[in-house]
Design goal:
Blueprint: E1 2-5, E2 8-11, E3 27-30, H1 34-42, H2 44-55, E4 59-62, H3 67-72, H4 88-95
Parallel strand pairs: 3-4
Antiparallel strand pairs: 1-2
Length: 107
């Protein structure tokens, strides 16, 4: 299955449910977008992957609105994070994140 965004076609190598339950990556990056962030937040598979990687000290990253998925899965409590500025207050209120530095990344 593929996703098209701004004329860029992304094709997954496999579905999340097809991954081995103990598989670890160097980093897990959640893509941005409001609806995508909602889907990531609601996904049990995403929650399990994030928790497993956080426990092993792996890099977790989320673009734009995707840090809201961290909230849904209790990821990153007490750690410094960054997000799209519109989500800053919501993230701080939800989990008391220590948001000491806010960054805007332009690619």
């Amino acid at each position: 299955s593929s996703v098209i965004c701004e004329s860029v076609v992304l094709v997954a190598d496999c579905l999340l449910k097809e991954l081995e339950s103990d598989l670890l990556f160097d980093a897990v990056v959640l893509p941005g977008g409001g609806k995508g962030a909602e889907n990531l937040a609601a996904s049990q598979e995403v929650g399990e992957i994030l928790k497993r990687h956080e426990e092993q000290g792996k890099i977790l990253a989320a673009v734009c609105a995707a840090p809201t998925a961290f909230l849904s899965h209790d990821i990153g409590k007490g750690k410094n994070i960054t997000s799209y500025p519109a989500f800053k207050a919501w993230i701080i209120l939800q989990l008391n994140f220590r948001a000491q530095k806010w960054l805007i990344c332009i690619f």
